[in-house]
Write a structure and sequence with these properties.
With about 55 residues, the chain is an all-alpha fold. The chain is about 95% helix and about 0% strand.
């Protein structure tokens, strides 16, 4: 059932978006995930190094 939903959403997206809009949406999502992951890694590293100096 999950695959059917994924396939139907993919087909719906392909029919409603032009190729440029689809690529733009994919890159925007990728950019935001990249930003979120980089910020998370920086925060984790900061916490690790700040705890190391206090110990």
């Amino acid at each position: 059932m999950r695959k059917l939903t994924l396939y139907s959403m993919t087909i719906f997206t392909l029919l409603t978006l032009t190729s440029c809009e689809a690529i733009e949406t994919i890159f925007k999502a990728g950019m935001w995930w990249g930003i979120i992951l980089v910020v998370a890694v920086v925060v984790i590293l900061f916490l690790i190094f700040s705890r190391g100096k206090n110990s």
